[in-house]
Amino acid sequence: MRIGGRAMGEFFDPMMVLGAIARRTEENAPHDDSDYVNPEDGLIYCGKCHTRKQHIITLPPMGEDGEEQTMKVPIMCECQKAEADKEEQRRKELEDMKLIHDLRTRSLMDARFRDQTFETFHATKDNERVLRLCKRYVDGFGSMVERNQGLLFWGDVGTGKTFAAACIANALLERRVPVVMTSFVKLLETMQGFKEDDEKLIQRLNRAKLLIIDDLGAERSTEFALEKVYNIIDSRYRAKLPMVLTTNLKLDEMKQNGDIRYSRIYDRIFEVCYPVQFKGQSFRKQEANRRFREMKDFLEG
User: Fold this and answer.
1) Which of 33, 66, 171, 264 would bridge 61 by S-S if both were Cys, CB 3.0 to 4.6 A apart?
2) Are 25 and 74 in contact (CB under 8 A)?
């Protein structure tokens, strides 16, 4: 059979095709005026790093003579490899930045908490232990996930529970860990107006490696609210995914509550969440006192 005046066996010449590919690659390879041919091996070398820009490959026997053939092909010299590595690193950094941005967008975190970090954590004698514990939780988060180990931040209003939880969230987001941080009040409001069933919303929450929920106990104590709170807690428990909860309730209130509707919620929490007490004067009261003194000095000084 002949095609275009040539026999079928003559139509495909492997060496001709490989040579054309090599020439095209060579043409597209970056060159510099300082590049030179090394007389010892006849290959092109980079004029900057003095490493090869060509490599000789041995092809398997082809044709009737069955002899091995060689071909020069372009390769990256060391400085080109270094530049390619830098470019790949820049690409990965941009991807990481986009991923972190997307994770923050999906985290449901209030904007006022998105910049809270351990570096901005105001350490006092009352919260030094808390700061140390939170950092260790983040550093050992892989183990915490394996053990389904969460935290329960409890203490008086304004002692920094939400701030500490936000620090954990932001530290993990920087490490590209999916985190959702919201409040029970917001979740219940969402569930009341949710077009889909609760299971789909809970599935969305459970896509996060860590779920942080603020203000346990602040929700209205209705049958609807208590059932939804239990479903959220129980879903994390069954999925073996950790959670960090904050509450103004005291541990005794939670442990000694005789109402089965509450106790089944708290029993789940105590099984998988390590309680951490927040002490000291309310930061809000301290800030209010500071502002009061400033205004007093300004108006009456």
Assistant:
1) 66
2) yes
